[in-house]
From TrEMBL:
SUPFAM superfamilies: Nucleotide-diphospho-sugar transferases. The keyword Transmembrane applies. Keywords: Membrane, Transmembrane, Transmembrane helix. The keyword Membrane applies. Residues 51-209 form the Glycosyltransferase 2-like domain. The chain crosses the membrane at residues 115-132, 144-165, 296-314, 320-340, 352-371. It holds the Pfam family Glycos_transf_2. InterPro entries: Glyco_trans_2-like (IPR001173), Nucleotide-diphossugar_trans (IPR029044). The lineage of its organism: Bacteria, Pseudomonadati, Pseudomonadota, Gammaproteobacteria, Chromatiales. It comes from the Bacteria. This is Glycosyltransferase 2-like domain-containing protein.
Length: 382
């Protein structure tokens, strides 16, 4: 009969292996894989009509700055179709200015969530190239031109812009987006496509677009539509979208991570072909490492801690129990700091107290995102 100690040892080893893989799998793949030069597909031409879709919910106060960032933008020949897709009632909607070369219209929808507002706007649009951009993302000069230009290559199916945080108090978020930008640049070299996206500025060919299901990360789903169709999902660092820091309190950091992880896993569930190593090779491996293994880290860490503690208690390892208890106490203290500061701006804390509670809330949010996904929860509202 298998002993309890052996079962705990195996469980601890598995947990530690998963935790290590979660941290190292994607970086090691991108280091060890040889560079990939995608073959150019014939017949590439710049898309004609372009549609820019901006979903709006709750308040339109940020719309004036958004529209102002469109002045001086270039997108090729023809006029730009701009659709403001409202999800339910919107207050503070400004008077729409007259933008040269832009045909702007407002599409009013019942409140059903961002995915429904985007789907309705696509159905009402006429562009060969569909661009999506969040309301609070201001477009840097040349952003639209850079996004449209990459579609001159027939092999490109979708594209994602680079994010820059446009406020000095968003240092932590700025570092995060800088890291994401470097990761995407590396993925382009090793994979030819990227495994993550953002909604600040995203584009896809109309022929590749599939209606966005409820409860998914829309930008990831849109990008994977291109991958599943055999096209590339590319990063365009020359196209810059300026964003304010997305979450200013630990409560919002936790809620945002929980929502994103649940929706991201649901996006993979709706695009299982993208995870097929047989069809997509190294890209599928990187996608699994990035969107599944990476997010398993907090679960593996918790399992490893519990099993090692149980082994120590079972074998009478006093010092090990004390060490693990000390680590648990440290985690509890960080949790207390995080709980006391859930509604405070962590940017105003001393630097030494900022990172640990932030990381704790991020990983707790990831764990709860898994919980929501596994019990079939769909997060459809903003």
């Amino acid at each position: 009969m298998v002993s309890l100690a052996l079962l705990l040892t195996v469980a601890a080893a598995i947990a530690i292996a998963i935790a290590i893989a979660a941290l190292l799998a994607l970086p090691m793949l991108l280091i060890l894989l040889p560079e990939r030069r995608p073959e150019a597909m014939p017949g590439g031409v710049l898309p004609g009509a372009v549609s820019l879709i901006v979903p709006v919910h709750g308040s339109g106060a940020a719309l004036a700055a958004k529209l102002d960032s469109l002045r001086g933008q270039h997108w090729g020949t023809g006029r730009l179709e701009l659709i403001l897709s409202l999800d339910g009632p919107v207050v503070d909607l400004p008077v729409l200015p007259d933008l040269p070369g832009v045909d702007c219209r407002v599409l009013r929808n019942p409140r059903r969530g961002k995915y429904a507002a985007l789907n309705a706007a696509v159905a009402a649009s006429a562009g060969e190239l569909l661009l999506f951009s969040d309301l609070d993302a201001r477009l840097a000069p040349g952003a639209l031109a850079a996004m449209v230009a990459v579609f001159a290559e027939a092999g490109v199916g979708a594209a994602c812009a680079r994010v820059a945080v446009d406020r000095e108090d968003g240092l932590m978020q700025a570092r995060y987006w800088d890291h994401e930008g470097r990761l995407k640049t590396r993925e382009m070299v090793q994979l030819g496509s990227i495994t993550a996206s953002n909604g600040t500025l995203l584009a896809i060919r109309r022929v590749l677009f599939r209606p966005i299901p409820a409860g998914v990360v829309d930008d990831l789903f849109v990008g994977l539509c291109a991958v599943v169709a055999g096209r590339r999902f590319v990063f365009v660092p020359e196209a810059v979208a300026l964003m304010p820091p997305p979450a200013r309190t630990l409560r919002r950091v936790f809620a945002r991570q929980r929502r994103i992880v649940c929706r991201g896993l649901n996006a993979l569930r709706h695009c299982p072909q993208a995870l097929s190593v047989r069809r997509h090779g190294r890209y599928a491996l990187a996608l699994i490492a990035h969107k599944v293994l990476r997010r398993a880290f907090p679960l593996a860490l918790a399992l490893g801690f519990v099993t090692v503690l149980a082994l120590a208690l079972l074998d009478g390892g006093g010092w090990l129990v004390l060490a693990l208890a000390a680590l648990g106490g440290l985690g509890g203290a960080l949790g207390l700091v995080a709980a006391l500061g859930l509604d405070r701006d962590p940017g105003r804390w001393p630097r030494v107290l900022t990172l640990a509670p932030w990381a704790l809330c991020v990983n707790a949010g990831i764990a709860m995102g898994w919980y929501d996904f596994l019990r079939g929860r769909r997060v459809t509202q903003w």
